[in-house]
Amino acid sequence: MAVELNTAEALKLWHDTHLELVRDTEPDLSARQTTILLTVYLEPPPHTVRGLAAKLGVTKPVITRALDSMGRMDLVNRRRDPQDRRNVLVQRTVNGSLFVERLADTVCQRAARLRTMM
Amino acid sequence: MAVELNTAEALKLWHDTHLELVRDTEPDLSARQTTILLTVYLEPPPHTVRGLAAKLGVTKPVITRALDSMGRMDLVNRRRDPQDRRNVLVQRTVNGSLFVERLADTVCQRAARLRTMM
DNA sequence: TTAAAATGATACGGGTCCGTAACGAACTGG
DNA sequence: CCAGTTCGTTACGGACCCGTATCATTTTAA
């Protein structure tokens, strides 16, 4: 596991990956949406609105709205917690998994090209 | 120069860096703004509105507005091209350089921690 | 000199997002 | 039971961004 980025490489990776995301036809996710999406897909459940808001350091309506829009894109799902029906559990979707997989591929490809393209 | 990210590492890097940017007090840049900013700071001048629009695959008003808001944040500057006064040249600022430097540090630190934190 | 082309900015109508405040629903403890 | 707490959501006014269409300015070329 060799992950050593110098300053120039880090910036180029950040730039190249963002450029590819912008050029894609898919609508860009905001930094907040990206963080929420990857939290849900990388960290073990359960994921609640309150928990996500605390983790990101934002208010709860921010999470609610992000879940609204990402739900419209079919990237995440909401379900009531049967144990405590006040809670909402954020769940993964098939489409969201594919989206995250494509994002990982993009980052990996751009990282690999750093070696040859600089 | 060893840059080898596997899928899990790429996603964790993307997540961790975005999380730190969201938690920062500074306002988040959109993907388009990030791409414009890093293009200006990584690639050799001159940078014009038309050129940036073509590179990103967006319309010119998108670039104009992004330059408006990033100019308000003192991240970039606009200047008329004396050679061809129709053109606007996008220029770097001291504050923008610091911002880009901090971004690079964040990405580098998060990349370095991938080794120990997984 | 003048019509055409090119550049960036602006107006417009519509959408999304922001934080604060208030709300209903669900749980908790006395 | 029932007041108090904890959830997530919604309402609101304001800010920003979107793409299309149009504009003024400048350059080019006939």
Characterization of the model:
2 copies of one chain form a homodimer. Chain A has 118 residues and is mainly alpha-helical. Chain A has 5 helices and 2 strands. Chain A has helices at 7-23, 31-42, 49-56, 60-72, 94-117; strands at 76-80, 88-92. A two-stranded antiparallel ribbon of chain A has the order 1-2. In chain A, helix 3 packs across helix 4 (60-72). Chain A is elongated, with a radius of gyration of 16 Å. The two termini of chain A are 22 Å apart. The model of chain A has no long low-confidence stretch (mean pLDDT 93). At the A-B interface, helix 1, helix 2 and helix 5 of A face helix 1, helix 2 and helix 5 of B. Chain B binds a DNA duplex (30 and 30 nucleotides) through residues 30, 32, 48-50, 58-66, 68-69, 84-88.
On the 0-100 scale, what is the average pLDDT of chain A?
93
Largest sheet of chain A: 2 strands, antiparallel
- Taking all Cα atoms into account, the compactness measure Rg of chain A is 16 Å
Main sheet strand line-up of chain A = 1-2
Structural class of chain A: mainly alpha
Q: Kindly state the number of beta strands of chain A.
A: 2
- General form of chain A: elongated
> What are the segments of chain A in which pLDDT stays under 50 over at least 5 consecutive residues?
none
Q: List the helices and strands of chain A in order.
A: HHHHEEH
Q: What is the subunit arrangement here?
A: homodimer
Give the proportion of residues in helices of chain A: 55-70%
Helix tally of chain A?
A: 5
User: How widely separated are the two ends of chain A?
Assistant: 22 Å
